[in-house]
Amino acid sequence: MTQAMYDHTAIQNPSDDRLAPYRDIRERDLVGRQGHFIAEGEVVLRVLARFPRFHIRSCLIAENRVEALAPLLHTLPDDCQVIVASRAVIESVAGFDVHRGVLALGERPPKLDVDAFLAALPQQAVIVVAVGIANHDNMGGIFRNAAAFGADAVLIDPTSCDPLYRKAIRVSVGGVFKTPFARLPANAGDILAAHGFEQLALTPSASERLADYRRADRVAIYLGAEGPGLPDAVLARCRRLAIPMHGGFDSLNVATTSGIVLHHLGKSPATQRP
């Protein structure tokens, strides 16, 4: 990429039109941004900048952060508008304390065709299927673990929250940009089976332990919300696995569960087979 040109002149007027995409972030994130999303923090921006399928339209940087961030800002695309403002102006526009002093406006990538995407995955692949994950912290944690343990994709059912919500992105530490994701069609189970995926469900009622499971080449692990867990229809079509626990506990935080499961599934199939 060529060097981006950015304005070091602080914007003093909170009503400046260039700040419009960043106005009232919390409220607008809840109703959607018409094909865009907001990313927050230097670490997340560094990850975002590495994945051009998420085009960065603009950045809003606190004036006291510009010098330290200059090397990163110079790597952004030519058409990325970099806006510099005082922290007071940024907080007035955003509606909360942006203590990291870094915001970015990105474009959502085109939707993945799930059938074509699964067909193109390698013979050995691991995907996560998120069902009813309504908490943004949990969604971000799942994506962070998916990125850390090399999951090939995260598929998301219609009842789950948006992984490109600002808080989910922040909790994922940019993992949502690393791991491809798509919304599930109604016949997701049939599609996964057609592409050779063994479908697994984590549930405390299972008789088979995760530690004893030896994975197939292609596996899809279903994770449900804490409390209700996975729907009966999902459990009926999956091989069920449990993580035994002490002291009468029968469930873990779903993001924690995803880390345990993905660490186990991430081991080489060849080394796990007897």
Your description of this structure?
With 274 residues, this protein is of the alpha/beta class. It is built from twelve helices and ten strands. It has helices at 25-31, 42-48, 66-73, 87-94, 114-120, 136-148, 166-171, 175-178, 188-194, 232-237, 254-265, 269-272; strands at 36-40, 56-62, 81-85, 102-107, 125-131, 153-156, 181-183, 198-202, 218-224, 239-241. It has a six-stranded parallel β-sheet. α6 (136-148) links the parallel β5 (125-131) and β6. The longest helix is centred in the middle third of the chain and has 13 residues, at 136-148. Mean pLDDT is 87; it is low at 1-7 and 268-274.
Which features characterize this protein?
60s Ribosomal Protein L30, Chain: A, disordered N terminus, four-stranded mixed beta sheet, six-stranded parallel beta sheet, 12 helices
Main beta sheet strand tally, sense and closure: 6 strands, parallel
Q: Average pLDDT across residues?
A: 87
CATH class of the largest domain: Alpha Beta
Q: Report the span from N to C terminus.
A: 48 Å
Oligomer: single chain
> What is the name of the CATH architecture of the largest domain?
3-Layer(aba) Sandwich
Give a quick summary of the entry.
This protein has helices at residues 25-31, 42-48, 66-73, 87-94, 114-120, 136-148, 166-171, 175-178, 188-194, 232-237, 254-265, 269-272, and strands at residues 36-40, 56-62, 81-85, 102-107, 125-131, 153-156, 181-183, 198-202, 218-224, 239-241.
